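Issue 218. Parser rejects a valid record. Input:
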Amino acid sequence: MNDREHFRIGPLRTTCYVYEGDGTRPITERNLRVYYDADEPVYVPEDVRRWRQEIEDEQRTRAVAGRDRRWNHPRFAVETVAVTRSDDREDPIVEIRFSPTDYFTFLASQQLDRRLEEGEGAGLTLRQHYLDGKDPVLVNGFLSASFGANVAVVTGRDRKMLFSRRSATVGGNAGQWNSSANEGLSGRHDLKDGVPDLFGAARRALREELAVHEDDACDLELLSFAMDTERHQWAAFFLAVLPDLDEDRMRDRWSRGIDDKWEHSEFRFVPAEPDDVLTFMLSPEALEHWTACGPALFQHALVRLMTRRLGDAGKGRLAVERAIDRVVSAQPVGEA
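Output the parser choked on:
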């Protein structure tokens, strides 16, 4: 994939590829169509099956020795993603087909720079054989065993956007600024009526990571789909506006405990205005410490907020583009 297809703002460069959406038009639950056959596991090539067995054996050895271990659990692999438009209003319609997989297969498939030993790809790395020069959306499903619900939160009472920094104890992106809350689709927690539930995963992220409860008012919208092409991990971008909460109320709740408090080391509330949010995103403390898809999520959230405020998609997008120009132009010489 050409680097120019990756999301960027001024000096901020990422490996995030935005597949569908720009924040102007949300994808409704009715227009998100998910398919899943629990009896058809994803195809996994022989090399990756062997790597998976190595991981399972290692974790079993760690458990016998009383050491920390990783637990295997069911996950979903993305087989296909397709986007169409409704006939009348041209609203986005997204169809996703998942197959069953598990966490150990995900870990094995994340060894993208490990060399294959068998078959036509022998001698090449997993990345070289399956990804390089190919459309990342169309590659084999076993490589797409990570699908995260990433949520940008805006408090309603004081209109602030929440940024969360991942702690040093998380498995990936430790110390990086990220979405307000995020959860990977789980085969144990996110099945609804027999299919993976993306909206449910987003609500679970809010509950487990930010103590936003089921009876809290929450305006939740699915904005777009993207992929971290370096790790080959899918992301669904959500905006959650919490009309009855503000920074003080949320911090008070966190003082009484959060289910997954260990996942974050810092929270930052920033006024939910384009110039303020973009200034933080491009600030020296944040610029070099972003996850791949965090910046795209927050930019899309800004576009959605401005679209709602101005009542027009074009004006909403333009308001954010103009803010980008202002903030990038204000960067010190040598950082732009």
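Fixed in the parser; the record now loads. The longest strand covers residues 74-85.
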